[in-house]
Amino acid sequence: MSLSPQKQIQNGAIGIQPPSSPSAIVFKDYLYIFYIGAGGDGIWYTWSYYSLLRGRQFTAPIQVSARAGTPIPIAPATRPVPVVFNNTLYLFFTALGEKGFSLSLTTSKDGSRWTPAVDVSGAIPGALPVMPATNPAATVHKGHLYLFWCTPSTAPPDRNVNRLQFSELENGKWVGANDVPAVNLGVRPYTSPAVVDFRGQLLVFYDGSGGDGTWVTSYNGGYGRL
Questions:
Q1: Contact present, 146 and 139 (Cβ < 8 Å)
Q2: How does pLDDT run along the chain (226 residues), one tens digit per residue?
Q3: Counting C-beta atoms within 10 Å of the first and last residue's C-beta, which end of the chain has fewer, N or C?
Q4: What pTM was estimated for this model as a whole?
Q5: Cα 6 to Cα 11: distance, rounded to the nearest angstrom
Q6: Is 71:65 a contact under the CB 8 Å cutoff?
Q7: Rounded Cα gap, residues 139 and 158, in angstroms
């Protein structure tokens, strides 16, 4: 496999707040890149028609906002998490509010007009606070939208070990939060999970709490380490 020469997007016009990172997704045949603005001024994005990528530049940066000039309150050192579900672009992110870090969401039907951000944590029964400097992970599995996030353990001796919680959107409502029940699962602090549907299995990747590399657990009726 060979890779094409690298290209700078928008000739450096895109500025990303360190130490966050961008995320990408294809929605309605357009390639979207989401990121936190360098000025800490919320979530921004740029897009390009992906089949013409070699001959067409990305758009100028656009701010994700339900109202012009009002930035989305995303927490620093995180990244936006896009996923397409039921022909809608869902954009999850970690928000910092008066009660600490929580899960939030904005959606778009056309990739340009966005709904006001809503508190997802408050809509999930039993959801625990999100670990600072981490972002959620989301994917569609067997027609259902799943959301995962890290939460700090409060029981000694695991105060420095993250747990993984998840919920599922069912008929427009989030079901109660559950811990991923894989045996001896522990997530390294200040790291985030990654999830993907692969050949009918829901795979959850994470950094081990012992600094012992990347681990994966799968769901196909029940969780277990591979």
A1: yes
A2: 777 777 777 656 789 999 999 999 999 989 999 999 999 999 999 998 765 555 567 888 999 998 877 888 899 999 999 999 999 999 999 998 777 899 999 999 999 999 999 999 999 999 999 999 999 999 999 999 999 999 987 655 555 568 899 999 999 999 999 998 877 788 888 899 999 999 989 999 999 888 888 999 988 655 555 4
A3: N
A4: 0.91
A5: 12
A6: yes
A7: 28
DSSP assignment of 34-56 equals: EEEBTTS--EEEEEEEGGGGGG-
Whole-angstrom distance, CA of residue 91 vs CA of residue 97: 18
Euclidean distance between CA atoms 49 and 209, whole angstroms: 40
